[in-house]
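Query form — protein tRNA-splicing ligase RtcB

QUESTION: What is the three-dimensional structure of this chain?
INPUT:
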Amino acid sequence: MTDDESPDSKEFDGIRLERVREHVWEIAREDDMRVPARVLASEPLLEQIGDDKTLQQLKNATHLPGMTKHALCMPDGHQGYGFPVGGVGATDVENGCISPGAVGYDINCGVRMMRTNLTYDDLQGKEEELVDSLFANVPSGLGGGGIVEEGIDTVEAILARGMDWALERGYATEDDLAHCEDEGMRPDADPDAVSQKAKDRGKNQIGSLGSGNHFLEVQRVTDVFRPDVGEAFGLEEDQIVVLIHCGSRGLGHQTCTDYLRRIEKEHADLLADLPDKELAAAPAGSELAEEYYGAMCAAINFAWVNRQLIMHRTRQVFERVFGRDWEEMEMELLYDVAHNIAKKEIHTVDGEDRELYVHRKGATRAFPAGHPEVPKAYRDVGQPIIIPGSMGAGSYVLRGGEESMNLTFGSTAHGAGRVMSRTQAKREFWGETVQDELRDQEKIYVKAQSGATVAEEAPGVYKDVDEVVRVSDDLGIGDKVARTYPVCNIKG
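ANSWER: The structure tokens for tRNA-splicing ligase RtcB are given below.
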């Protein structure tokens, strides 16, 4: 604490934050900032958030045209490309902008959870067989290789129709669609707005995890904190569930790259007024803004199908390992929620309903009970939220909190959030050692394409997910429902 700091103010590299109330810190509006910025964090998390360029990136984000109310950083926030990971920003659909930099490269990098009626006892003794079979049957790692490898016509159908394509092809059920955000399809998708290069990158990656922090994890439910909501979600202690975390692969990355380059050429005047060109944005109503929105929605559809195919293959692996049909094991989708997304939504600002582009980069939607966009199965209790921890820590299921619409445009954190770069992680950890320790000490079985991948994702490189979830729960933006713990994990 510096000489001019108090318990109600903090300063990091010249950026001062004032405590508004518990867990809410504000960077006051100054100079060309259009709105204030807010960080939702406990003091320990704030110290970690202030340790890189997150706060400067958040402050820069307030310069985006049409930014409304305040730019936000969730409790898991960390430095990203232009816009911080864990950032939320709502811009006016008529007089604002849409920013690929505030969405991210991995469009709809999201997470889904599948329930089962298996218990931890059913799984014990089969861990190695299961992790080996999942690793052998679910494509992972850099480059190509997918569960479905077909032509560009298939890619375009997926971009246009999302999970409806998977249903028609027998990879999904009606129930799967009913339990996915937006029922697994963005109707504003425009496959023609996705470049040929992006489609070519995607055609051999349909149904694949990729690399980095993407994973497929078999977990057991260790705690249910709200039994009534847990019952509505179909969760109980000792139950086995499956978590799938991945996105739109090379197709999404290329789509982001294409539009960043086009914005640099076609809207250089807007970029010149921003403190960081990585915030690249297209003016609302412009041809480029409409094209990007259509392309982004198409990539969102691709990511939903990607996760659905992985879930389909996972069901098949469980059938072989356990000798039962997946329907008999009640392997049903609890929910699929998107990160890295900008969506047109109606929110009340200063007593007025406004249509906004809500950018959630490394943040997740958190709509409360009663919201019409929450699936009917959960509308009485609130939207499920899935927050993964590291492969050596618990993950959480939350439900949309009553304060989310007022405080965060219906958003909360999306994970634990990194505290260490991948380069530093590889210096500090040895992948094989991490795998051995997790297996021997925690009974967690990890399989990956390389030891480097395991080192990059070692438990020590992430924030404390318990603390991230505590802040969300305390603020009432995402209420804690259940905790899960890893059993088997496959990574790229």
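ADDITIONAL NOTE: The CA atoms of residues 195 and 255 lie 7 Å apart.
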